[in-house]
Amino acid sequence: MTTENPSPTLLKPAHPVGFVGYGAYVPRYRLPAREVARIWTGGKGGLPIKEKAVPGMDEDVVTMSIEAARNALARAQIDPAEIRAVWVGSESHPYAVKPTSTIVAEAIGAVPNTQAADWEFACKAGTEAVVAAMGFVGSGMARYALAIGMDTAQGRPGDALEYTAGAGGAAYLLGPAEESLAVIEAAYSYVTDTPDFWRRAGAKYPEHGMRFTGEPAYFEHITQAARALMEAQGTTPSDYRYAVFHQPNTKFPQRVAKKLGFRPEQIEPGLLVPVIGNTYAGAALIGLTAVLDVAEPGDRILLVSFGSGAGSDAFDIRVTEALTERRDRAPKTQDYIARRTEIDYATYVRLRGKLVTK
Amino acid sequence: MEIPRHWRLKKQRYGLVGEVCPHCDAKIFPPRDVCPSCGSEAKTLYTFSGRGEVYSYTTVYQAPSGYDETAPYTVALVKLEEGPLVTAQLTDLGDQPVEIGMPVEMVTRRLRSDGDERGLLVYGYKFRPALRATR
Q: Where are the domains of chain A?
């Protein structure tokens, strides 16, 4: 079966594709934002979130991606040897040179007949991998492709980003629409050169353009991408039961949802930043896993990521009957969020390797 | 540097891949190609479920080199549901006390860096308290 693409700018594969499995991961430790404020501002000033997830000392993007991928495979119940691409999007790959994706592919049993690559585009590296996987499966080149967005985000001690730079993400196994628990009706990507946030090669912590990260960056790209996708698809916000937007803090996704005409209850189940922080390449994708955990067949979901530098990927997703039987095969996003151990700033400093010991 | 050894052990370390005896069906970990129960050749690969329980445990305060940055940590003998007893670190304990008989599950984690911060990262199995969720 092949489909017509009604729009020259829409990304719509020749063969319909969807998610045959999905899996989330959030580490156990939580640093309350008030702890950061206690150290750096004497406890004064507003807090952008309640708390953020912090990885344990033995966790990184490799280990977190492996767990999310195993959850996606548990839901899909396919043979991992049928996977033809393992793609991991992140800005915290443990190696500068040596792929995260080969280790993940080896651990889940997808080697050796597979593509493997690491993707990089600030916070939208994960959805970049999803779009590429749509092409890989939708062209008929592959039956299954695994796309992961995962981060252990960096924040300079005392910087505004330290309150929110969290850890977590999600894995999506893409496959033919007829096997999917949610079908991707279409995608759309909107990209410009906008310098709102960056980290130079070799630098430990990122730099950001302060207020410049808002209007010309986050809001402009998400709004343009969402509007273009909905216009091409002939939909309005009321056609979607849920919407998930990239979430660097609590206010931005709430404001962009309102601006686009979405009601607070449409974004509520996928708004995880208040309790896990900004998971960067994982943020929009783990918002979607939380929505899939509660969605019903027939529900339509709008997903829009944002990555600094800058761009947005927007997806029009429709849930199928297969979701209800598959979602209980792996831990839900809220199960990970509920597994919570609060830590203080000193423990955070040790877990994140911010102490110089030699 | 022990690159060849890490490379050779990756399957069993990343995914808890052992062997099953084609003669008596005993599950074997770590893989040793000869069945410890019936003595026959056993080379069929078998991926363990990763579920088990704490058989015994101890906490390490004076860690061997390579592990000193993460001390103190807890090491356990884990009785896998398929039978074998495996020695591994426990992780993600938070403030949870460890108890004999506690249900645990395998996760793949960073074990250590081979050498200093320029060295190869070594990944392998550890066990954590089982998530309450269904699997």
A: 17-181+334-351, 182-325
B33 touches chain A (CB under 8 A): no
- C-alpha R_g of chain A: 19
The answer to whether A285 and A329 have CB atoms below 8 angstroms apart is no
Q: Choose the closest CB to A59 out of B10, B96, B110.
A: B110
Whether A91 sits among the annotated catalytic residues: the reply is yes
- Name the strands in the sheet holding A51-54, side by side, starting at the edge strand that comes first in the sequence: A51-54, A29-32, A341-342
Q: pLDDT tens across A215-270, in order?
A: 999 999 999 999 999 999 999 999 999 999 999 999 999 999 999 999 999 999 99
Question: What are the tens digits of pLDDT across the range A265-283?
Answer: 999 999 999 999 999 999 9
Residue numbers in A near B47 (CB within 8 A): 109
The CATH number that domain A17-181+334-351 falls under is 3.40.47.10
CB A45 within 8 A of CB A273: no
Tell me which CATH code domain A182-325 carries. Answer: 3.40.47.10
Tell me if residue A246 is catalytic.
yes
Interface membership of A330 toward B (CB under 8 Å): yes
Query: Which residues sit opposite A144 in a β-bridge?
Result: A83
CB contact, 8 Å: A210 with chain B? no
Q: Are A79 and A179 in contact (CB under 8 A)?
A: no
Q: What is the pLDDT of residues A160-197, one digit of tens each?
A: 999 999 999 999 999 999 999 999 999 999 999 999 99
**What is the model's pTM?**
0.97
Tell me the residue type at A96: A
For an interface test with A, which of B92, B96, B105, B114 has the most A Cβ atoms less than 10 Å from its Cβ? B92
ipTM (interface pTM): 0.95
Q: Is A123 a catalytic residue?
A: yes
Residue of A nearest to B89 (CA): A58
